[in-house]
C-alpha cells in the first residue's frame, strides 16, 4: 500500500472521529475534523499524481472515502435538524449511485474515471455549504440546494467520461 492510499485510509478513520466530536456537541470542532479529512484528500491526490502513484485501487477508494465522509456529515446535519431531510435524500441518491456504479464497473473490469476538476469543484462547494450551515448563516440551505444541483451535473459528466473511456478501450481490444 502506498502513501496516497494510506492517507485515503486515514480519511476512513476520521469518519467516526467526526461523528463522535459532532454528537459530543462540538459542531465547529467537528467541522475542523472534516477540514483535516479534506486536506488529506488534497495531499493524497497531490502525492499520487506527482510521484506517479496513481492506482486503480486508489482511484476507487479515494472517492469512496470522500463520499462516505460526506454522507456521515449530511446524516449528522439532518439528525441535528440543520438541513432538511429532502436535501439529504437527494445527496444520498446521487452519492449512492456514484459509489454503486463505480464499484459495479470496477469489479466488471471496466476502467473507472478518476476525480476530475468538476468533481473537485463539487467537493469544495460542499465544504463551503457545510461551513455556512455550521455557522448557521441564513442562506446556507439555499446554497446547499445549489450545490446539490451542481453535484448532479457533475455525475452526468462522469457518466459521459466513463462511457467514452470504456468505449475507447473496447475499440482497442477489437
Automatic annotation (TrEMBL):
InterPro entries per record: CDP-alcohol_PTase-I, CDP-OH_P_trans, CDP-OH_PTrfase_TM_dom, CDP_ALCOHOL_P_TRANSF_CS, Phosphatidylglycerol_P_synth
Subcellular location(s) per record: Membrane
Topology in the lipid bilayer: Multi-pass membrane protein
An example Gene Ontology molecular-function term: CDP-diacylglycerol-glycerol-3-phosphate 3-phosphatidyltransferase activity
Biological process annotations from GO: phosphatidylglycerol biosynthetic process
Keyword list, A-Z: Lipid biosynthesis, Lipid metabolism, Membrane, Phospholipid biosynthesis, Phospholipid metabolism, Transferase, Transmembrane, Transmembrane helix
Statement: the UniProt record of this protein carries the keyword Chloroplast: no
UniProt keyword annotation of Lipid metabolism present: yes
Transmembrane segments: 6-23, 68-93, 113-135, 141-160
Function description: This protein catalyzes the committed step to the synthesis of the acidic phospholipids.
Protein name: Phosphatidylglycerophosphate synthase
Organism: Paenibacillus thalictri
